[in-house]
Write a structure and sequence with these properties.
The structure is a single chain. The protein is of the alpha/beta class. The chain folds into 2 domains: 245 residues, 3-Layer(aba) Sandwich (Aspartate Aminotransferase, domain 2); 122 residues, Aspartate Aminotransferase, domain 1 (Alpha-Beta Complex). The strands form 3 sheets. It has a 7-stranded mixed beta sheet with strand order 1-9-8-7-4-2-3, with helices on both faces. A two-stranded antiparallel sheet has the order 5-6. Strands 10-11 form a two-stranded antiparallel sheet. The longest helix is centred in the C-terminal third of the chain and has 21 residues. The model has no long low-confidence stretch (mean pLDDT 96). The structure holds pyridoxal-5'-phosphate. The site of pyridoxal-5'-phosphate (PLP) has 12 residues, from helix 3.
Amino acid sequence: MSQQNPVFIPGPTNIPDRLRLAMQVQTLDHRAPNFVETFAPVLEHTKRVFGTTSGQVITFPASGTGGWEASITNTLSPGDAVLVARYGMFSHRWIDLCQRHGLDVRIIECPWGSGAPANKFAEALAADKAHEIKAVLVTHNETATGVRSDIAAVRRAMDASTHPAMLFVDCVSSLASMPFAFDDWGVDIAVSGSQKGFMLATGMAILCVSPKALAAMETAQLPSTFFDFRDMMNANASGGFPYTPPLQLIYGMRESLKMLFEEGLDNVYARHFRLAEGVRKATSAWGLELVAQSPDLYSDTVSAIYVPDGFDSNALTDHAFNAYGVSFGIGLGEMNGKAFRIGHLGSLTDVMVLSGLATIEMAMADLDYPIELGRGVAAAQEYFRAGRATPMQSAA
Ligand SMILES: *Cc1c(COP(=O)(O)O)cnc(C)c1O
C-alpha cells in the first residue's frame, strides 16, 4: 500500500508496489548471461504492446523526448521536410525539437482541442510533387488537451496521396493504455516511454521502428551517437547494450509486461475506457466542458477540463494539492489557467478514480465553483456500479 495519495497527473503515473519491487535489484554485470536472458525477451514481448511483428523495438535510457530525438536523427538529414500539425503542447515540443535539428518543418496550425487533420495532411502531401516531405509526425494522444487522434485515418490519407513519406507517431501517453496497431496503421516509428502506461519510473524511451525507417538510416545525415539505432541494434543482437543499460528499469519493464499480459491488453484498454468514461460523466455532471472538441477525440488516458469563466485552473490545482495532498495536471501552454487535467492512466482502479473526483470536487467547492458537492462523484459512481469491474490486480 502506498504511503501517499495517488497522483492524477497524466504521467509519470502511479507505480504499483509490484513494479517498485521489481525495480529493486542490486547491480548485476550487464555483460553476464543472466542480463542477456532478461533483456532479449523484454524487447520481443514489447512488440505485442505496439501491435507489431515486423517492427523492431529499440530502447534508450531517456525520457520520451529522447525518443523523439532518436526518431529524427537516425532517419533524416538537415533540411529534410517534415509535415506536422500543432494542436497542443506535446505536438509543439516535437516541432521545436525538429526545428532545432535544422529540419524544414511544415506546420499545420490547428485549434487546441482538435486532432490530427488527416484531410489537410492529404492536401499537403498531394501538393508535394517533389516528395520533399520525408516524414509525417503525429501525436497520437495529445496530453495537453486530452485528444486522441485517428492514426488509421492519417495512414489512409497518406496512402490516398501515394506519397512515400514515413509516418512517425508519438504514443508516449497512449501505449499500453489505449489500442495501438503499429503494423495495421503502417507506422514507421512509434515513440513511447516507461513512465506512463507501463507504470514504471521515468528513464526509458521505448521505440518501435519499421523496416522502411531502418532503411532510411542508410542515407540519414543528422548526427547520432547516444541515440544511434545501429549501435543499439548491433549490441542488442547479442543481448547486450552499447553502454551501461538502465538495469533496474529493464527488470521493471519485464514485470510490467507480465502485469499487462496477465490482465490482458484488451482488458487494460477496456479499463482505461471505463475510468475515462467515469471522469467524463463527472465532468458533465459538474456542467463543465472538456477541451477535446468531440467524442471521437476523447482520450481514455487524460481529460482536460475547462474551468468556468472567471476561475483560474492553476488556483484549483494548487488548492487541491495544498489542502488535500493530491496532484492534478495543470493547464499547459494555451490552456494555462483555463483548464486542469485529470490523468487516468496506468495503475488505477474505479475506486482510485472516485477518490480523485471527490478531491477535485472538494477543491472546487472550496473555491466557490458553481457545482454541487457530490454530483460528479455520484455520476461516476452510477456509471461504475452499472459496469461493475472485477477487483484490479494493478491495485495490489
Ligand atoms: C509525456 C509525454 C512525452 C514525453 O515527455 P518526457 O517528459 O520527455 O517523457 C511526449 N509526448 C507526449 C504526448 C507525452 O504525454
